[in-house]
């Protein structure tokens, strides 16, 4: 039960970081309208997160 709470808390932290990343991305890419740049920023964050998670999973499988 302790590990489920820890994983849930990590998930919340990752989601908050995604929102902050999306907002920061929309400020950096100021040539687009605000909503489009937020969506683009969230898509970029999701891609980065998927690459990192895939690397962690593959790394764990190779170590076993």
Q: Could you explain how this protein is built, in words?
A:
The protein is mainly alpha-helical. It contains 2 helices and no strands. Helix 1 packs across helix 2 (34-63). The protein is elongated, with a radius of gyration of 15 Å. The model has no long low-confidence stretch (mean pLDDT 90).
Short description:
The chain crosses the membrane at residues 7-28, 40-61. With 64 residues, the chain is an all-alpha fold.
Helix-strand string:
HH
Q: Based on DSSP secondary structure assignment, what is the total number of beta strands? A: 0
Please, what is the oligomeric state?
Answer: single chain
Range of strand content: under 5%
Indicate the percent of residues in helices.
over 70%
Mean pLDDT: 90
Poorly predicted ranges (pLDDT <50, ≥5 residues)?
Answer: none
Write down the overall geometry: elongated
Helix tally? 2
Task: Give the C-alpha Rg.
Answer: 15 Å
* Structural class determined from secondary elements: mainly alpha
Note the gap between the termini. Answer: 25 Å
Major sheet: none
Write the layout of secondary structure elements.
Layout: H1 2-28, H2 34-63
Descriptive keywords:
single chain, mainly alpha, membrane
